[in-house]
Amino acid sequence: MATVCVIGSSNLDFTVSVPRLPGVGETVSGGTLVTSPGGKGANQAVAARRLGADVAFITLLGADPMGDRLADALAEAGLPPGPIGRTTDAPTGVALIAVDPEGRNQIAVAPGANHRLTPDRVRNHAALVASAEVVLLQLETPIETVRWALAEARRCGRRTVLNPAPARVLPLPADLLPLVDYLTPNETEAGLLTDREVRSAEDAEAAGRALVARGVSTAVVTLGAAGAVAVGATGAVRVAGFPVEAIDTVGAGDAFSGALAASLAAGAPVEDALLVASATGGLTCTRRGAVDAMPTREAVVALMKQHDRWPRSAWLRGWTR
Q1: Cα–Cα distance between 221 and 23 in angstroms, integer?
Q2: What is the DSSP letter of 240?
Q3: Which among 49, 66, 101, 319 is least buried, having the fewest CB atoms inside 10 angstroms?
Q4: Is residue 74 within 8 Å of 321, Cβ to Cβ?
């Protein structure tokens, strides 16, 4: 497959499975703790890699034991160590996650080294951006870094995917949107970006049209179990979600974005890329954790076979029915 360059965050996730999510000032006991690698950038990089993409992941870890653990996990996932930096200026990023029996979650993040991934650090890896078919970013690193990477990718004629998450950093600066080829917000993020309520596929399509009017080439609004809607200059494409037994939704949106980038880099048309991304995101919900939950290409193929939903074009060598 063609190359995907992911620029973004890495965290060590501390996840507690609880009987229900706590309210303000409330303590909910009786849970179990799992410590695992995560962070939106790492999740997306591993998702793309497990689908067979050749991935370069530009990130920054602290020079601490948590960073050691993440570096080992990323290497085990097949990501080359060169772009994975270390710093003594800040600790490795950490996420504290509570997950209820329905898979819903609450997340608090201490970004640490992720906020030290400056444009200067990423500029040292400009050759990776220039050689990639698709450059994938999120918003857990400084917005100046996101802006530089999008502009550099555009200058080099590379396609870009921006996952505008987490929602707390929205709205985006207006000058960023025209640099984005594919924007992948969920319902909440699409609502914040367009100042409207997004509850249905029709709402998502309307939000997508608004984002295209503001300069995005294609807006892909994810709708959880209901699938996704892609809106571009020539119209809209909808794809239904895959029915799965969800136990943990952490990382599902990241899996979707990583799979979308991998599929586009391999030459998939949007319809096929959405199908693979939807299957990948759904499968992620069937396992606990973030990086650890990213599915393999074989699992994605099996899910598409099970539901007799297969890409219509022969866009990916090695993917057979």
Answers
A1: 29
A2: P
A3: 101
A4: no
Q: Compute φ and ψ for 175, nearest 5 degrees.
A: -75, -10
Domains and CATH numbers, the chain: 3-18+33-306 (3.40.1190.20)
Q: What is the DSSP letter of 194?
A: H
Report the sign of the C-alpha dihedral through residues 105, 186, 111, 131, in that order. positive
For 23-48, the pLDDT digits (tens) are 999 998 877 888 999 999 999 999 99
pTM, 2 dp: 0.93
58: Cβ contacts below 8 Å, ≥ 6 apart = 5, 6, 7, 8, 83, 84, 85, 117, 122, 125, 128
Beta bridge partners, 231, equal: 219, 236
Q: What is the per-residue DSSP string for 273-297?
A: HHHHHHHHHHHHTTSSSSGGGPPPH
Q: Which one is catalytic: 64, 100, 254, 272?
A: 254
CA distance linking residue 258 with residue 218, whole number of Å = 16
Q: Which amino acid is at 20?
A: R
